[in-house]
């Protein structure tokens, strides 16, 4: 009997040690939820206290129901990530600009400007995509504003980001990423900063863009073709379950800009809704978000910042070969994807400076 009890004891001890040992072998995609509070700072010139990512490397929580990407576009990068918050006094201190940076880089790194959707002023709403960008060795700034006061965005960028972090930012390489109303800002800001940022390369990546910024001719001219710097790489992304923004808006932005077809692609992602780039159900991201949102963004970063001219070709091959998820990516927009305009909350029927061009695409 004693021998039997001894064997049982050894078995339990072995199992316990095995589990304990496995818990320490955390891969870069096995990440836990961040409980670190904001660090409030001001624009007085005082030193900003960094609020850096704790171990494990990326303070996120993800849905493990499908396998995450490894060894391809969309996999998290190798850099630890830190961030700093700056109170934006243009809005009575109600909002923050957050600057994420890759730790351990001893030279200036490219910059991505991320613009949030309507009324989404907390960077944690987009925590996964922001950490993903910084993990690639790229600075990324979360920029937000009261939705009726977008004219303060350029001064926010110049003073709170470009000047404050001039020793970290390589101004010659830039990306503009936006969600919903923030996606429409990317076209305006890319034009606004065409002589200040991105002379060696730039990209625009829009997620479920609406027409927020197109209600005034001040931001984007009402003429049909939107002029963009020629060295811009562009991906317009829209979603099958999005009943907020009319897919025709994405079609207008894709077709009616000055970029040649070899510089741009249109993506239609099946199964995602308007907020597909945000965390949900207690998770910061899942395998579908990684495949549909992170993967093309990663390819844009590679093409633009690393001058890999085969990046989009490689991206399309990865999408084709993926056994789990196959969004559409191409140079045209299948008409079968278009729903009746009346079904959308924000459609081509609303009054804005691009109303005519939105409706003329033949859908």
Describe the structure.
The protein contains eight helices and ten strands. It is an alpha/beta fold and 363 residues long. Mean pLDDT is 81; it is low at 1-56. Helices cover 27% and strands 18% of the residues. The longest helix has 23 residues, at 2-24. It has a single domain (38-359), classed as 3-Layer(aba) Sandwich (Rossmann fold). The radius of gyration is 22 Å and the shape is globular. It has a ten-stranded mixed beta sheet with strand order 1-2-3-5-4-6-7-8-9-10, with helices on both faces.
Q: What descriptive keywords fit this protein?
A:
18% strand, 8 helices, Rossmann fold, ten-stranded mixed β-sheet, 363 residues, alpha/beta
CATH topology category name: Rossmann fold
User: Given the helix and strand composition, which structural class is it?
Assistant: alpha/beta
| Tally of helical runs | 8
- Judging from the principal axes of the Cα atoms, what is the shape? globular
Main β-sheet, spatial strand arrangement = 1-2-3-5-4-6-7-8-9-10
Q: Based on the structure given, which CATH architecture is correct?
A: 3-Layer(aba) Sandwich
Low-confidence stretches: 1-56
Question: How many DSSP E strands?
Answer: 10
CATH C-level name: Alpha Beta
Per CATH, the superfamily is: Alpha/Beta hydrolase fold, catalytic domain
Number of domains: 1
How big a fraction of the residues is strand? 15-25%
Question: In a nutshell, what does this entry contain?
Answer:
With 363 residues, the chain is an alpha/beta fold. It has one domain: Alpha/Beta hydrolase fold, catalytic domain (Rossmann fold, 3-Layer(aba) Sandwich). It is built from eight helices and ten strands.
């Amino acid at each position: 009997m004693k021998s039997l009890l001894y064997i049982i004891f050894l078995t339990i001890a072995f199992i316990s040690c095995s589990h304990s040992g496995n818990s320490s072998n955390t891969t870069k995609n096995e990440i836990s939820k961040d409980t670190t509070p904001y660090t409030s700072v001001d624009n007085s010139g005082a030193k900003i206290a960094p609020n850096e990512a704790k171990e494990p490397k990326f303070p996120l929580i993800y849905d493990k129901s499908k396998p995450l990407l490894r060894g391809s576009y969309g996999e998290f990068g190798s850099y630890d990530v830190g961030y700093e918050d700056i109170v934006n006094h243009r809005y009575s201190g109600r909002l923050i600009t957050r600057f994420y940076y890759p730790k351990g880089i001893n030279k200036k790194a490219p910059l991505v400007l991320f613009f949030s959707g309507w009324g989404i002023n907390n960077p944690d709403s987009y925590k996964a995509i922001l950490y993903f960008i910084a993990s690639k060795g790229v600075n990324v700034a979360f920029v937000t504003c009261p939705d009726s006061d977008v004219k303060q965005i350029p001064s926010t960028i110049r003073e709170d980001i470009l000047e404050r972090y001039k020793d970290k930012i390589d101004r010659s390489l830039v990306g503009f990423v936006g969600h919903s109303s923030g996606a429409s800002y990317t076209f305006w800001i890319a034009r606004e900063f065409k002589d200040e940022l991105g002379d060696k390369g730039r990209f625009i990546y829009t997620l479920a863009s609406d027409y927020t910024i197109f209600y005034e001719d001040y931001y984007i001219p009402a003429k049909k073709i939107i002029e963009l710097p020629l060295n811009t790489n562009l991906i317009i992304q829209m979603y099958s379950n999005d009943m907020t923004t009319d897919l025709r808006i994405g079609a207008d932005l894709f077709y009616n800009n000055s970029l040649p077809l070899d510089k741009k692609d249109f993506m239609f992602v099946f199964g995602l809704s308007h907020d597909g780039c945000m965390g949900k159900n207690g998770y910061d991201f899942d395998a579908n978000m990684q495949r549909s949102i992170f993967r093309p963004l990663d390819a844009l970063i590679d093409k633009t910042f690393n001058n890999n001219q085969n990046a989009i070709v490689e991206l399309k091959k990865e999408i084709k070969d993926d056994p789990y998820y196959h969004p559409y990516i191409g140079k045209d927009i299948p008409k079968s994807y278009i729903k009746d305009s009346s079904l959308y909350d924000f459609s081509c029927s609303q009054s804005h400076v691009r109303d005519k061009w939105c409706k003329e695409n033949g859908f």
